[in-house]
Specification:
By secondary structure, the chain is an alpha+beta fold. The chain contains twelve helices and 22 strands. Helix 1 crosses helix 2, helix 7 crosses helix 12 and helix 9 packs parallel to helix 10.
């Protein structure tokens, strides 16, 4: 399995004979240096470059090119070599770009000789740098590892070599560039896009240093414990011009454009909506600038692209800060390992220099982050007002012009996501429709500050109000009579929160109370699941009983497990497992601690549901880049009757028989 690295991350190498493949959108110079245990390069004979491409165990390209393959045999390296650093630089005096910020982000892969990728790294977040230390192979305790570095140098190749302790770095860099200039006629043209994920983030770099996965995982699997619930959707690359992904199963790219009732064909690119940006300036954001069959699909892809951008750029910043701290520690250890530096002013100067360099690296990383966040904020400012009702917040004016739809939308917004580095930037959290898994609104205590300031009774009330708002949104985005809602409220404790659903008349039946009501509703929905499954297996959908409601069904369960006996619990687990595939979905409001008496028997139930909270909480785990996203529930504006007005229109459409 390929390890997709971010800055500072390392990965163990399973073999010693390797290829390092470099792909860039413009010809670059590739080289490598050999370092000792402290990373020091002891002269030009420890450097492989186009003018001297071969060293024992190492061979690099002889010219600048858009693609390189560097050969490495770690077993053949001298015993004194502990580090191999791969360098990339832009050629000078050849009329090409002079900074990496103006070209596509280079992509580096460490592979076996047969081509299998071991680790990959996308060098995003570069700006004025014209040379970069891409990655390093290093030996520790007898094992070789690879680390993503991504350290750029505005001073070019000379500054990079000097930073590694090479004497005569200026002259050596000049000779390298002269050798490259003589061979530029043999340089190859930039390669075509490698895969359908040739997107704005990876090639223009919203900056995280992590390549998009070649194929996304299915819904992440994991125990949705209060501290780490997997996100409901894999982060997808954002398609923009260039190679257009083809429809059909996602076997070669991370975005699956297959749609029911739609022929398999490539989605059209977005129409031109804005003039191209001036060179050196970011393009003006435009709502719907992703590919897709419709504006809804373009906005969906754009929203997930914004999520990916924020994930990448924050990962790049965090990795850069970690790298700066690690480098400072290494430099201090190296300086203070000499007893002469422990007395007098030499040690103090070494500490000051190391901290200054750390601060410089951190400041540059923050500048890159702020630049990317400003671009994302500008994009959010134009995208948010353009979202359709299913994707929009309750305060969006689109709800004032709401009409019952005639088609099911692609997705539904269930909240917002943000990260600590960008508290003011919120990305809509969209889940595909029909729902692939149920939802659990956690009414118990969480570790968040917002929960600590909220009493237990208020948390339960907010959780139920949140569930009602989700149910109302589902009713609003489905065509009339194609979505039904049932409620189980054993003790009748949610009467006030359920008022919008009850008063509007959109419920399939009054909320069920008591043990009898619980058993009746569960038996009804279990029967529906059984009948539809049998009809599907027999290929006899027309044989379903005439009294069977074929609309999508949502069951809201309040205060679970109160009022549930063992039989009811078994039926509820059955609905959670088998219901989504035949259109029966759960929306539970519960405190997991209240169900502890059942022991581990309910663990599969909790794992099958997407856990959200009624207050802000950083429990959504992102296995792609390791972030803990803060989830914020959708709120209706204070004093607003948008919920009641929308439900009234849904009820009116049902009474009139309109689709």
């Amino acid at each position: 399995m390929t390890a997709e690295l971010v800055r500072g991350q390392n990965h163990t190498l399973p073999q010693t004979r390797l290829e390092i493949r470099v792909s860039a959108g413009t010809p670059v110079v590739a080289g490598a240096t050999l370092g000792d245990e402290q990373g020091t390069v002891h002269g030009i004979e420890w450097i492989a470059h186009p003018g001297s491409p071969q060293l024992p165990g190492l061979e690099v390209s002889k010219q600048a090119a858009a693609e390189h393959r560097l050969a490495v045999d770690l077993d053949a390296l001298p015993a004194s070599v502990y580090r191999v650093t791969v360098l990339l630089a832009l050629p000078v005096d050849v009329g090409g770009p002079v900074r990496f910020g103006a070209v596509a982000a280079p992509f580096v892969a460490v592979t076996g000789l047969e081509g299998t990728e071991i680790a990959t790294f996308t060098l995003t977040g570069l700006d004025s740098e014209s040379a970069v230390a891409a990655l390093e192979l290093y030996r520790r305790q007898g094992a070789w590892k690879v680390r993503a570095v991504g350290q750029g140098y505005a001073g070019g190749l000379a500054a990079m070599l000097a930073d590694q302790g090479v004497s005569g770095a200026q002259e050596l860099a000049r000779s390298v560039h002269e050798a490259v200039a003589r061979g530029m006629a043999r340089s190859v043209a930039p390669p075509p896009p490698r895969t359908p994920e040739g997107d704005r983030v990876r090639h223009a770099g919203a900056a995280s240093g992590q390549q998009a996965p070649a194929t996304p995982p299915a819904a992440p699997i994991g125990d949705p414990a209060p501290a780490a619930t997997p996100l409901p959707h894999p982060a997808q690359p954002r398609p923009t011009g260039g190679a257009v992904p083809t429809a059909g199963p996602a076997t070669s790219g991370p975005v699956n454009y297959a749609h029911p009732r739609r022929q398999s064909a490539a989605p059209p690119p977005p129409p031109p909506t804005a003039p191209p940006a001036e060179p050196g300036r970011p393009a003006e954001p435009v709502a719907g600038d992703a590919t897709g069959w419709s504006m809804e699909e373009r906005l969906y892809n754009q929203v997930w692209g914004m999520f990916e951008d924020l994930a990448r750029t924050t990962a790049a910043y965090r990795s850069a800060v970690d790298f700066a701290e690690s480098r400072m520690d290494q430099e201090l250890d190296r300086a203070l390992s000499d007893p002469r530096n422990r007395i007098g002013g030499a040690g103090d100067r070494a500490r000051e220099e190391a901290r200054t360099k750390r601060d410089q690296l951190t400041d540059r990383a923050r500048e890159a982050l702020d630049r990317d966040l400003a671009q994302l904020a500008a994009e959010s400012a134009v995208v948010e007002p353009a979202l359709p009702a299913a994707y929009a917040g309750w305060d969006n004016p689109v709800w004032h012009d709401y009409r019952v739809p005639m088609e099911i939308p692609m997705a539904l917004r269930i909240g917002d996501l943000r990260l600590p580095e960008s508290a003011d930037l919120r990305i809509p959290l969209l889940v595909r429709l029909p729902l692939e898994r149920g939802i659990w609104v956690d009414s118990g205590r969480t570790a968040s500050e917002a929960a600590a300031l909220t009493g237990p009774d208020q948390l339960r009330r907010l959780a139920m109000e949140n569930a009602v708002a989700h149910a109302a949104r589902l009713l609003a985005v489905y065509p009339a009579d194609e979505f039904s809602v049932h409620v189980i409220d054993p003790a009748g404790s949610a009467t006030a929160a359920l008022a919008p659903l009850v008063d509007s008349g959109v419920l399939a039946a009054p909320p069920a109370a008591g043990a009898g009501g619980v058993a009746s509703v569960l038996a009804h929905l279990t029967r529906r699941v059984d009948l539809v499954q049998m009809a599907i297996r027999a290929g006899a959908a027309d044989a379903l009983p005439p009294d069977l409601d074929t609309a999508e069904q949502l069951l809201i369960v309040n205060d679970f497990p109160h009022g549930f006996d063992d039989r009811a619990v078994t039926r509820l687990r059955y609905l959670a497992d088998e219901g989504p595939s035949v259109g029966v979905h759960l929306l539970m409001v519960a405190d997991r601690g209240d169900a502890s008496a059942y022991g581990p028997v309910l663990d599969p139930l909790w794992r099958s549901l997407l856990r959200i909270t009624p207050v802000a909480d950083d429990h959504l785990a992102d296995p792609w880049v390791g972030h803990a996203w803060t989830y914020e529930p959708l709120r209706t504006p204070p004093g607003s009757r948008v919920l009641q007005n929308v439900l009234a229109q849904v009820a009116a459409a049902r009474r009139s028989g309109r689709p």
